[in-house]
Amino acid sequence: MIRPSQWGAAAVALAFTAVSSVSLAQQPKIQWKMQSAFASSLPHLGPSGVRFSKDIERMSGGNFEVKFFEPGALIPPLECFDSVSKGSIESCWTTPGYHTGKYPALAFFTTVPFGPNVGEFLAWKWFGGGNKLREEIYAKHGMTAVDCFCIGPETSGWFRKEVKSLNELKGMKMRFFGLGAQVMQKLGVSTQLLAGADIYPALERGVIDATEFSMPMMDIKLGFHQIAKFNYFPGWHQQVSCSEFLMNKAAWDKLPAPYKAMIEVAGQAQVIVTLAESEAAQFGAMAEMRDKHKVQVKRWDDATLAAFEKAWLEVLKEESAKDATFKKVADHYLDFRKRYAIWGDSQLMKPTYQTAKPAVAKAASQK
What we know:
By secondary structure, the protein is α/β, with parallel strands linked by helices. The chain is 48% helix and 14% strand. The protein has helices spanning 7-19, 45-59, 80-86, 118-127, 130-139, 178-186, 196-205, 216-222, 249-254, 257-291, 302-322, 324-344, 353-365; strands at 30-36, 64-69, 91-94, 143-151, 157-159, 173-175, 190-192, 210-211, 230-233, 241-248, 296-299.
């Protein structure tokens, strides 16, 4: 029986079998540089890139090296688009959401406010034509990409003081990511995009008043709790987040077919491994936040969430009106969600804690 921790290894083994008809000894030795936007010490996001590199090394018998470089070692973390496009480096372990200065529509391929769960999101990206739209954009700049890891819902922000009304957001300076940043701007927040390692210093110096980044395990690692003691949920802006292995298209085209297969399967392995790993770690991190660091975990009330959603729908309409690429991607995404709802809505269940509690107690008593 394969344990969850072995899923990635199993996928690698399958890939190895798929390409074994061509002797690895006959394949050329190739070395690629991979600039990561995430430090190897940052839980989930960085280690997934390290695992990806090691998987390719194992599958190729050491002939194909995709070397992991820490953020900033080759280029600044937010400058992958231009560097990969020009061929300055072959690849980046990054996210489409870091390229929105080039194309706001690219944010759709990482996460969407009030978006779907991971199953529906990957269904759109992999089988519903979503990633084909991403490839159309990247092809204009000599690039291609494969999905490389996904994580579940994030927190929606760390604040120095409790936010008791939407009015208290006005004038606030906040690090925010992706399309959610435009929602916050609608509500009077001044947003800026910062790489993970740059957030704490900005928060400490007062350059920003609040921040969101990712899941509790990562946020604690970055030290946000030392300054901001109010952590808000749910992560309405990022219910699921998927990232990418971004490649120079000319470099990709030169790879032997077995090496291309290794990249594709190693990326798919990290999608599920990183998702499961990150989901398993957050409840412990939240308990540490509450008990050790005295962080107050807060939940936006329904009226506030409704205001966020209203602002998001306004952003969607306005951006679609002024950006043809944005509209094309948004319409495609919304059409898929509408059609998916026939299946998705039929499976919705809303059990309450009160109804679930007796069942849990009964199961426990039978052990």
